[in-house]
Amino acid sequence: MKPVDQTQFAGEGVGGDCVRAATASILGLPITDVPHFLEIAPEPRLWGLAFEDWMEARGFHVWLKHGHLPFEGYYLVSGPSPRGVSHMVVYKDGKLAHDPHPSRAGILSVDWTRILVPLDPAAAVHIETEGL
Fold first, then answer.
1. Strands 74-80 and 60-66: what pairing?
2. How confident is the model at residue 11 (pLDDT cuts 50, 70, 90)?
3. Which of 87, 113, 121, 126 has the most crowded Cβ, counting Cβ within 10 A?
4. 32 lies in a domain?
């Protein structure tokens, strides 16, 4: 995981890009390589479908669970932020690993857990061990 900070915030344009920044962080990508899902979705409320389609095209299934499902490793969670807006952050082993907002305040509670599951586990092992 390579921490990436969001570049757009709630109240600006179509909305903040915490999903984009958290996704870039967990995948180790520059933020410019990840779309702002609120902007590419047919309607902002359908951002989740755009996110899942984008992840699938990159070899990942998004396992979505309501509530918190602690997971060993990095995963995405979303819920209310102290700023009063919905927010996405990166967790690892059940705890906050990176909040892409400059406040680093995290979220107040976990409403949704998103675990990125490789469609081809053999490729994921290859990617993980390449850097060793």
1. unpaired
2. confident
3. 87
4. yes
More confident call, 77 vs 10: 77
Give yes or no for a contact between 91 and 76, defined as CB atoms under 8 angstroms apart: yes
Place of tokens 């990166």: 90
The answer to whether position 9 is within a domain reads no
φ and ψ of 57, to 5 deg: -65, -20
* pTM of the model as a whole: 0.89
Residue 7 belongs to a domain: no
Residue 12 lies in a domain: no
**Average confidence score pLDDT of the chain:** 91
Structural domain boundaries, residue 48: 18-130
- Cβ neighbors of 85 (< 8 A, separation 6 or more) are 10, 16
Give CA 83 to chain center in angstroms. 18
